[in-house]
Amino acid sequence: MTRQEHQSEANSQPVHPSGPLPWIVCGLGGLFFCYGYFQRVAPSVMVAGLMRDFGVNAAVLGNLAALYFYAYATMQLPAGVMVDRWGPRRVLTGAIMLCASGSLLFATADDIGVAYAGRLLIGVGAGFSWVGCLKLVSLWFPPSRFAMVGGACSMLGMAGGVGALAPLAALIQVTGWRATLIGAAVFGGVLAATVWLVVRDGPRPVPRRSVPRPAPGSPVGVLGGLFRVAATPQVWLVALFGAMLVPNLAAFAGLWGVPYMMQAHGLERPAAAAAVSLVLIGFGVAGPLVGWWSDRIGRRKGPMLAGASVALAAVAALVYAPGISVVAAYSLCLLYGTASSVFVLAFATGREHGPADAAGAALGLVNMTIMTVGAVFQPLIGWLLDLNWDGRVVAGARIYSVAAYQTAFLTLIASSLAAVLVLALIRETHCAPVSRATA
Fold first, then answer.
1. What is the pTM of this model?
2. Which CATH number fits domain 225-439: 3.50.50.60, 1.20.1250.20, 3.90.1310.10, 3.40.50.12780?
């Protein structure tokens, strides 16, 4: 490379300024991820009210909650293309407005069909949150700080999930679920306006002429990279590992854990929500630490196996151990979430097994698979609960016995066990890419 080419390349790289602005910009992206995660988990403390107001059973309610995941999963690959093409400022502003509009539609729905539409809009908008947040981090921070800042944004997401449990449950007891979702819609509108006014697409965008165009027929393009990722069995196995752990968050912490804790331990809704929030707290705090540990020892499979095994033991004890105390149940919820945080290593391992020049496609495929499976487990558990319902109804909502939950939660045992078993087929990457870019 000539001196002029070196100079041209240097001039094409974005400048990463110091000071508070990068943190403010990326913090707003993280706040959107937090908002989206809040919307994901919120139905778990509205179960009785939603069943009563819409006159539905657990299977229908599971489908209502799962629409978020279907929409979110579908948007993963398009979201990456759109933020690259139009920039995160425009795309995230529109996505937040979709979330807010969906929240308002859901809050004012008179029938389940309108509620479905609102939940679908929320999922479509939230589908841009994580991709857009990471895009902002890549624009405003150097690569050496990407993992740290991205981890901080991930913790914001978990904070949104925690806020959608005990605090939201307490608020719903005062205002009702409809008023709280209207408030969430107003917050979304304010956040969208703030993002539009404050966020910029990088301190100095890379000039278009500096971005090389793929040669005709080159596999480096988006579709070519996606096809090569899809033809890599190891990426699918890693995606399956992550997908088998996601029910711990999507199905238990995201919907059915709160009513189970109320029924199994006689807790009021805020106390049950506080217990389940420990799953998300453990996940959020341990996630960055697990990534640091894995990088430090140069291994992926060891931490993944340890976490998946402990998660399996924790959920088995939480649901099936006879006569455990409330304190023990709280402790197991925390352990369950902490162990499940090895889920985050699926993204690093999938990227390392994928083609080196198609890392984005590998991440998108892994995340899409994970979110799709998360969507399946919510209505699946609801369907199993309905199969084992003993006919009890309180205040217009179905009440399921502990035995019904124990039968339905066999799916959590099966998925956690599958995560442990699939690791036998995954090759160790030693925290380094195992594939070279296609020439």
1. 0.72
2. 1.20.1250.20
